[in-house]
Each structure stands twice: as structure tokens, then as C-alpha cells.
Amino acid sequence: MKTENEWRQDPEYVSLVKDLLEQPAVKRLAHYKQHHHSNRLQHSIAVSFDSYKLAKKMHLDYKSTARAGLLHDLFYYDWRTTKFNLGSHAFIHPRVALRNAEKITHLNKKERDIILKHMFGATMAVPRYMESLIVSMVDNYEAEHEFFGPLRKKLEQQKKVVDWHATPSKNSKKI
Ligand SMILES: [Fe+2]
Ligand SMILES: [Fe+2]
């Protein structure tokens, strides 16, 4: 997403996920930190919206992509501190998200697959649908972007200050 609120300008996208965004179970995601600079709700919307746009461009099922993308991380624990006996976080949380998603909406086969296989690469669960592959790839991209994006911005600002100090003659002329 170019900006945090870009999705609000797309009425079709909003109409597809509005009922889910109104659910307390989805709103609650805002209380959980995801990738250092984002909360889980912001992350889920970003994954959902970018996946929806890609699916639409590719003439795929963008409705299922938008809805399941939004629910792909519907779990309520801090994955940095909570550990499981049954398996890794990468293995467990898609199952937890699927169970929680089924409590708030009906999911079709594709939506179930999207949620369950979104950790493809980290787990051996191979996506059955192109839409599932899109969400898993966008999820990976967003994780990197959310983590490094603000850091990159900070470095760019610092570089500008350094550049400014490194060229005093040029700057003094401006003054
Ligand atoms: Fe996830
Ligand atoms: Fe995610």
C-alpha cells in the first residue's frame, strides 16, 4: 500500500470487507504489534488490499482474496513471547486464524486455503489456488516492508543532513 489509508479510497474493496472490519474480533487485532512498526490490523488490511489488487488485475477471485487476506492472521497472542509444544508459530497460527475466522463468517474452500497456506515457504503447506499463493507472497513482502520501511526513511533523512553538511559552499550560497 502506498499510504496507510489508500484502501479507504476504493469503494469496491471497502464493500467486500466492511462487515468483517466491523467485527470486534477483527478490530481487536489493532492491539497486537506485528512487525515492529505496524499493528496486526494494519498488517492484515495491507495484505488484504494489495492481494485484492493483484488478484483483480489477474482476473482471479479478488473477493475471496480480499476477505481471506484480511483474516489470515486472526490470532491473539504475541508470537515473539508465546511458544507452543505442538509446533512452531509458522505452523500453528494459520490454524488458529482459520478457527477464529470460521467463528465470524462463512468461508468458502478457497478462503480456507488462503488462510491455511499463507505461510508457504516457511511451512510445507502448498497453496492449492493462485489466490493463496498471492496472499502468501504479499504477506512476505509486507513483513519486509513494514519492518524496513520506517528504517529506510530514517536513513534517507539522515543522509540528507549529512549531504547538507558535506557541501557547505553550495548551502551558504543558498542562504
Ligand atoms: Fe501469518
Ligand atoms: Fe501476515
Walk me through the structure.
By secondary structure, this protein is mostly helical. It has a single domain (6-148), classed as Hypothetical protein af1432, CATH 1.10.3210.10. Helix content is 63%, strand content 0%. It has helices at residues 11-21, 24-27, 40-57, 62-71, 89-104, 109-116, 130-166, 168-174. Bound molecules: fe (ii) ion (2 copies). One fe (ii) ion binds at residues 72-73, 93, 118-119. Pfam families: HD. Keywords: Hydrolase. Residues 40-143 form the HD domain.
Notable traits:
single chain; 175 residues; Hypothetical protein af1432; 63% helix; globular; binds fe (ii) ion; Hydrolase; hydrolase; hydrolase activity; HD_domain
Distance between the termini: 38 Å
Number of domains: 1
Mean pLDDT: 88
CATH superfamily: Hypothetical protein af1432
CA-based gyration radius: 19 Å
Helix count from the secondary structure assignment: 8
> Which blocks of ≥5 consecutive residues have pLDDT under 50?
none
Assigned CATH architecture: Orthogonal Bundle
Largest β sheet strand count, sense and barrel closure: none
Class, according to the CATH hierarchy?
Mainly Alpha
CATH topology: Hypothetical protein af1432
Number of strands: 0
Helix content: 55-70%
| SSE string | HHHHHHHH
Bound ligands, named by name, code or SMILES:
fe (ii) ion
